[in-house]
Please model this.
Amino acid sequence: MEIRYITKIDIETILDRHNIKYQSICPFPKSGQKAVFKIICDPNPIILKIYNVTPYHTINQMEYVSHVDVDELKVQKNEEIRILTMIIAREVKASKKCPIFPKMIITKDIDEYRVNEHLYKYYFEELVDGITMNESSYYLEENSISQIAYFLDAALELVKKMWDKTYVHRDIKPNNIIIDGERVMFIDPGLAKSANDETLTRTGMAMGTPRYWAPEQQEIQSNYNWTFKTDLYPLGLIAIEMFLPELRRLSEDQLKDMQFVYKKWCEKDQFDKSKSFFRDIIVKLSAEKIFRRASSIEDIQKTLVEFKESD
Model:
C-alpha cells in the first residue's frame, strides 16, 4: 500500500468541517508523518497539523502472508495506529499542561480524517508570532558572548517551566525554536516526555534529531528516567553554532567533540571571558556524561548573569 500524502482538497474538506473560510494555505516543510499548514483566515491566521497514522507496515506485511487471520490483522492494525497516534496525543497533552507551548484551538480533542483505508489525525493550533531560530539573526548574523548568554537564559527559563510540570522536550533544535524579538519559544513537543506518560520508546530505539540529541537518547531503555538534563545538551550545541557558525557545516561528531570545539573557540577569541563562558556554561550544558551537566537550572542562570553584560 503506497503512502498517500495530504492534498489541498483534503485540507479544504477539513476546514469546511469546522466552518473555516480561508484566504490561503501555506505549507511548512514536511517532517516524517506530520504535515503542517498555516491557514490564513479571519479573524486570525491559525496552524493546522495533520498526522498520517495509517498502519502501512501492518497492511504491507499482510500482503506477503498466504493466510490472513482477520482478527489478528485488526489487532495489529489498531496497535500500529495507537503507536503512531501517541506522538500527536503527546504533543496536544504537553500543549495543554505546559504554558510555554502554542495552544490547541477550534476543537477540544484530536479529530480524524479518512480517505478509503488511509487514516489521518489532526488538530488546530494558535499561530505564534516570530520566525524559527535558523531564520533569525541568531543564525544569520555573528553573535557575541552576551547575545548568546541572553538567548540561553531565555531558553533555560523554558526548560525550567517544562520541568516544573515534569516535562522533557527531547527534540530541541533550531527549527523547533521560535524567536520573536527578545522572546524565545519552543514548539513541536511531539517527543516531550512527562514522568506520568505512557512510554513511547522501545528498548534500543533512538529518540530525537541526531545532530542535537544527547548521548542518552541513543539506544535507550524503555524505562529510562528522563530529566531536564537531556534538554540542556542541545542548548549547548546551539550556543556553539551561534558563536562558531562555520561548525554548522561540519559533522555531528565534530560539533560534539568538545576538545575540537574548544580549540576552534580559542582561535576565534582568546579573552578570558570567552574561555570562562565555554568552561562554565557550554561544558555544563553539553557534557557527554549526563552527571557532569548542570544539576540546577537556576545555578547556571545565575552564572549567565555575568556574561550578559556588554562585551
